[in-house]
Amino acid sequence: MVKVNDNYLKLPGSYLFSTIGKKVAAFSTEHPDKKIIRLGIGDVTQPLAPAIITALHGAVDEMADAATFHGYAPDLGYEFLRNAIAKNDYQDRGCDIAADEIFVSDGAKCDSSNIQEIFSLDNKIAVCDPVYPVYVDSNVMAGRTGTWDPKTETWSDVIYMPCTAENDFAPELPKETPDLIYLCFPNNPTGSTITKDQLQVWIDYANKVGAIIIYDAAYEAYISEENVPHSIYECEGARTCAIELRSFSKNAGFTGVRLGFTVIPKELKAGETNLHPLWARRHGTKYNGAPYIVQRAGEAVYSPEGKVQLKEQVAYYMNNAKVIYEGLKSAGYTVSGGVNAPYIWLKTPDKMTSWEFFDYLLEKANVVGTPGSGFGPSGEGYFRLTAFGSYDNTVEAIERMKAL
Ligand code: MLT
Is this prediction's pTM over 0.70? Predict the structure, then answer.
């Protein structure tokens, strides 16, 4: 008889943002008159930049003519995009990354969940706590995480690295040696960052113990401070221990367009095995490449006009971050993040749990945020707000919160 993958049955509840979506939909049905402001999921609200729209239109027109029509994309990505990425995101920053080490995909969420497939189930993962839930859930689905303890809300075979106010929301090296280490900086959900020197410690550690770091740099465009690395490859020795994930969702507003990439240096090995060909094999077998139209839009991100327009877009969202950070601080909240990241991490007032505060805020201010505990046990008592709303909605949400 056919059997399901039992690992799926181990997953407690639904995906965090689906749970929130359902709760908000139920509230909205019950209170159709209320204007709900959504600062929960980190979804962008501003239109695509003009340079990207022009590129999209141009590519669509190419598809209308047999002479310029494109069918299946090369499975690792079009050269024009891989070259633009290698030059602008890496070589211009002094990182030794070549175009053929870049694997174009339809987004960092998929890559961050799929990448574990090329590693043995025996590997032990280490994650920050709180953490973007996709890293853990995808390893649960694969059967790498052991058993779920509903009391501690942790998996028996996962190494949790608490990121709390005490350590400035930066993980410390784990006591138990992991095989795969997930790091995300600027961090989702806390909005924290680490310096280049701090990141170097992780690279030296990974090279020493033979671990691989899966580095999610989806929010690098939001870095405003000098000593914060945009890529893990800015540090020495990263080519032998790190995979980097990048997204076009947050720097260019592609959440609805879908484009991302993964970098795997040629010399990166697990034991004696090179990982680059394994990921290429996986990509070739399971994926037919991001659409031509979308990859042309991605190329426009690196055009001179695109760069100027996207800098403005990032500044727009970071102004929202400032509105949230300063508004809540002046109202007496304990807040962090929001300086190098589009997320603001706040302590819930009056010892409310994260979900109590979620309900309270939805009910009393009609504002949606994300409960910190949804990202892991160390997120309990915290709450995340995103700066990706419109300016007017952000100002109104903070005014409503101040009036509570
Ligand atoms: C988030 O809100 O954490 C992100 O938008 C989720 C994602 O990028 O998939």
Answer: yes
